Amino acid sequence: MIYLKLALRNLLRNKERTFLSLLMIMSSTVGLVLFKAYTDDTIVSIEKISTEMHYGHLQIAKEKYWENTYHTMAERMVPDFIKMKQAAGTASDKIRVISGRLNSFGLLSIGAKTENASFLGFEVDQEAGVKDTLEILDGSYFDPQTYNQEIIVGHLLAKKLGVKPGDTITVVANTVDGVINAKDFVYKGSFASGSEEIDKYFAYVSLQGLQDLLQTPSVDLITIRLKDKADLQEQKTLLQHKINEVAPGYGVRDWIELSELFRKVKEFYGMQNTIIRLILVSIVVLGILNTVGMSILERIGEIGTMRALGAESGFVTVLFFWETLMLSLIGVTLGALLGFVVGSSVNSAAIYTEVPGASMPMKVSFLFSFEVFAEAILIIMITTVAVSFIPIWRALRLSVVDALRRNL
Amino acid sequence: MGIVRMENVKKSYKIGDGFHQVLKGISLKIAPGNFIGLYGRSGCGKSTLMQLIGCLDEVDGGEYYLLGNPIHTMTAAEKTRLRREKIGYVFQSFNLISTMTVRENIEFPLLMLNKEDGKARLEKVRSILKEVELEAFENHFPDRLSGGQRQRVAIARALVKKPELIIADEPTANLDEQTSEIIARLLLELQEKHKVTVVCSSHDPMFIENATHKISIHDGLLVE
After folding, report:
1. Residues lower than pLDDT 70 in chain A
2. Distance (Å, rounded) from C-alpha A253 to C-alpha A203?
3. Distance between CA A71 and CA A74 in Å, rounded?
4. Which residues of B touch A (CB under 8 A)?
5. The predicted structure's pLDDT at residue A287
6. How many Å apart are CA A126 and CA A251, to the nearest integer?
7. According to the model, what pLDDT value does residue A271 have?
8. What is the Rg, in whole angstroms, of the alpha carbon atoms belonging to chain A?
9. DSSP alpha helices (H): ranges in A187-259?
10. Cα separation of B157 and A344, whole Å?
């Protein structure tokens, strides 16, 4: 109790210095909170797009599918699609969705305009997550009743074609057997995925729609979404084992292996986070050394008196420890609150920024989590308290007589 | 047995590249219950001798025994314990802790001893506050007190744990003449009442006149 009482009084003794120390601790905490919340949001967004739209959590396909070394479409097809889907479905109760996909290249044609495109056929009713990750800019998403006759295309591709919702687009592609085939689709709308590459060249149709065009009942890929992403590696091993039993020659890949973008972004932000942390921690180290150092220097006489009266070094250390702990606790609490308020305000204000490689400005957004606050609070508090031991240790190295002389 | 026994104690300080010998071989014995007046000119070694007697500094040579304990061989931690348990201090500049109230300043030595609960400590603090006539100032901070009141608090702080020895280093040097007299009388009265040994360095004639024993120091040596 005496420690807390004295710590509080000492903090109030020099209000200006305490305010400056608080300001420094607060701003460093705000910096850590906002930077991590921003990078976490970006990483989670990429993760969501990767798992819901592009890859699923896990993919099953022929071993060489991901190496792109098959010469014909027929080589990469999964003829036992239904059997394998059932095998995967019974392998575990931790799977949320199992869905077949079909990929192809072809031409999109409307009137005199023709553009080449990459097509993805997917089970519209199964892969509901795709709808949430695509931003529909013009028209609407697939109709639940008529999606087998519909197509949605990237907004940059739609612009090149000059299509309007309701227009008929003719899609021309090679069938699995190598024969040219064509099918009409109703243009439902355009989407923005965030990736310029996808928005320029991609078109989405239903699996049935693309199977009709390619004249095949098969798929070339099975995607799996898990109930909990934490089960990724366990489920991957389990599925690989099960698939080997049912149909040898097939492989299982997880989305992290497949998404180079995710890995690079995560690595890049990880490095940036480390640099930002180092800069902010350095500011705290220098600031605390200065302010706590000054505070201790002013009180060396008092420290000498306490030691003359029989106080152990430990008592003096704990006294200053509580003072710094209280200072940092107030600072990080206010900093975390301020960071949350600033981040939430930016989230509400819907501020957009240009990002290299993105097809359109991206929303600046912060994702707050327990981890974001815990990490910032721990880093700043541990740094503050640990650094304050340096001036305390230096003060305690003085002899009692030398310390007492500072009272004069 | 003497409370203090020094045999040929020497003490030097480093000044620049050389050493200045402040105490050149002090030998003395102090019996319990006395009021010792230590006097001498400025720079003669009074304060150094007070610091050594009070176990605040280390002797360079000779032997020093306090209550039979060989101070010259003791570690810093052992001396801290001895100061905590056996010695009270009254400093020239009062040396009160500015963030503690009068009560907390006086309670501090008892808190360091850690032998009694809060209630017992408070009883002792209030009792000694009455003796120094500062009951009304229990919750005041030192910056609200006059110089004389601060030194009363310091005397109360020195006495509260009932030490064997009190070191009073020029206790009236920072006070005006009238206040000095009051403080000197208070210290002499309380020494008499509590039967505690006091070693007091001072130029104040009241201390010198009323001391049971007088020690004069000149150029680092005791003068008979």
Report:
1. 355-360, 408
2. 24
3. 9
4. 51, 54, 56-57, 77, 80-81, 83-85, 89, 91-93, 95-100, 104, 108-109, 111-113, 157
5. 86
6. 22
7. 92
8. 31
9. 196-201, 207-214, 232-246, 255-258
10. 55
Task: Among B54, B93, B100, select the one facing A407 at the smallest CB separation.
Answer: B93
Q: Which residues of B130-139 are buried (b: 16+ CB within 10 A; e: fewer)?
A: ebbebeebee
Residues A163/A169/A175/A180 CA torsion (nearest 10 deg):
-100
* Candidates B92, B99, B108; nearest CB to A309: B108
- Sign of the torsion angle spanned by Cα atoms A34, A40, A43, A46: negative
Cβ–Cβ < 8 Å for A168, A109: no
Question: Structure tokens of A240?
Answer: 């690989």
Amino acid at B220: G
Complex ipTM: 0.93
pLDDT at res. A366: 95
The CA distance from A50 to A161, in Å, is 27
A304-342 as b/e: b if 16+ CB within 10 A: bbbbbbbbebeebbbbbbbbbbbbbebbbebbbebbbee
Tokens of A91: 């392998």
Quick count: other Cβ atoms within 10 Å of Cβ A394? 13
What is the four-CA torsion angle of A39, A43, A48, A54, rounded to 10 degrees? Answer: 140
Give B71's DSSP letter.
G
Residue A12 Cα, gap to closest chain B Cα (Å): 10
At residue B197, the pLDDT reads 94
Q: Is A9 on the interface with B (CB under 8 A)?
A: yes
Report residue A255 as tokens: 């989305």
Q: What are the start-end ranges of the H helices in B65-117?
A: 76-86, 102-113
Measured distance CA(A281)–CA(A275) in Å, rounded = 10
Q: Is A401 on the interface with B (CB under 8 A)?
A: yes
From the list B20, B137, B4, B15, the residue with the least C-alpha distance to B66 is: B4
Q: Residue B220: CA atoms inside 13 Å, Cβ hemisphere, count?
A: 12
Enumerate residue ranges in chain B where pLDDT < 50.
none
Span A50-91, pLDDT tens digits = 888 888 999 999 888 888 787 888 888 888 788 888 877 777
- Quick count: other Cβ atoms within 10 Å of Cβ A382? 12
Tokens standing for A25?
Answer: 């601790």
Q: Which of B84, B91, B95 sits opposite A310 (nearest CB)?
A: B84
CA angle A66, A49, A62 (to 5 degrees): 20
Contact A311 B112 (CB under 8 A): yes
CA distance B129 to A54: 81
Q: Encode pLDDT of A109-137 as tens digits.
A: 998 899 999 999 999 988 888 888 888 99
Does the beta-carbon distance from B112 to A305 stay under 8 Å?
Answer: no
The owner of tokens 């009709």 is A212
Q: Are B153 and B132 in contact (CB under 8 A)?
A: yes
Residues in A touching B104 (Cβ below 8 Å)? 2
CA distance A16 to A349: 34
Between vectors from CA B35 to CA B212 and to CA B70, what angle results, nearest 5°?
A: 120
Other residues' Cβ atoms within 10 Å of the Cβ of residue A268: 12
Q: Is residue A292 classed as helix, strand or coil in its secondary structure?
A: helix
Which tokens in the block code for residue B106?
A: 């006086």
Tell me chain B's radius of gyration from C-alpha atoms.
17
> To the nearest whole percent, how much of chain A has pLDDT over 90?
54
Dihedral (C-alpha) A265, A268, A269, A273: value to the nearest 10 degrees? 170
